[in-house]
Amino acid sequence: MRILLWYWGRRGGGAQFTLGLAQALAARPGVQLSLSVSAQGELLDRFRVLSVPIHIVDTYRDLTGFATGLLRLPALTQQLASVARQADVVVSGMTHTWTPLVAPSLARSGAAFVPVVHDATPHPGDFAWGWNWRLGRELRAARAAVALSDQVAAALAARAPALPLIRMRLPALLGAAPAGPAPAGRKGELRLLFFGRLRTYKGLDLLRDAFRLLHQAHPGASLRVVGEGDAEACAPGLAALPGVRLERRWVAEDEIPTLLAAADAVVLPYREASQSGVVPQALAMGVPVVATPVGGLAEQVRPGAGGVLAEAVSAPALAEALAGLMDPLRLASLRLEAMRAGAAESDWDEAATALLAGLARLPR
């Protein structure tokens, strides 16, 4: 099977996902892989070492580059369509700003376009009209779509009932840790980490209220919040709480393993979720995950595999789930579970097998 894997984003989870999938597909017998990636991509050198045909596109780094890039987009679309004629299927690793503008042209050229849909509905706070317009154009151009959670698959089935769906699990984007997590802190301490873009739907206000309750009962608990965004808009007063350390910044890929391994547990207090790339990565590092029981998180965070789900989406329920980790024996048990689950969370070969099986079922 000839697969063109396409992603024109520069950095973040989309680039990491596309690289992981490219590495797995490049190693599969019977797969002829080619790539279309951004010249500005931070992982470009790692795509190059795969020794597969690569179409490198000059995209943009900033708003000015985006505006001038639109003038080049018709020519870039023609180039991609020409490259796509050498493939049986074009798989989009993740949507990009230009994807809805290019995908219809791929379909008109006869290419079998298959997007990996990370989110099937807009998150609370997203610009819903623009979001729905973008997804609608991609799905109308698609021959099939890939879902990374049952929650996303159900939403796609409701939106596009006739569109074939391929169910694929989201593995750890950076692979497994070679040596497991850092040693636990001193007795009575608990080092919690929230990591990712700071967005309203991620429940930072819920985390603020839950951590306040936790810290009142357990002063040795600490919370580190790391990511880009306006924390004060999401959760006023969070940074002022005792035990909270807020770091508003982008985290480079090579820092993520160290960041995760320094925590006793990762907490995801989301109010809504499709799935999270943080969950498999934390488990692959041997770090337990505590989350609210919403969307795809309820599928990823599993009891017996290093996961703890709060009983409800509320501050008291989340505080109670976190308080259980103050027991050193309980925390040690969860860390062992996470380390045992880590190998499966890093299995990109299994993910590639699921994708290839779904693509093989598509009519040519």
From TrEMBL:
Residues in Glycosyltransferase subfamily 4-like N-terminal domain copies: 12-159
Lineage of the species this protein comes from: Bacteria, Pseudomonadati, Pseudomonadota, Alphaproteobacteria, Acetobacterales
InterPro entries: Glyco_trans_4-like_N (IPR028098)
Organism: Falsiroseomonas frigidaquae
Tree of life domain: Bacteria
Annotated protein name in UniProt: Glycosyltransferase family 4 protein
Family matches, as PANTHER family: BLL3647 PROTEIN, GLYCOSYLTRANSFERASE
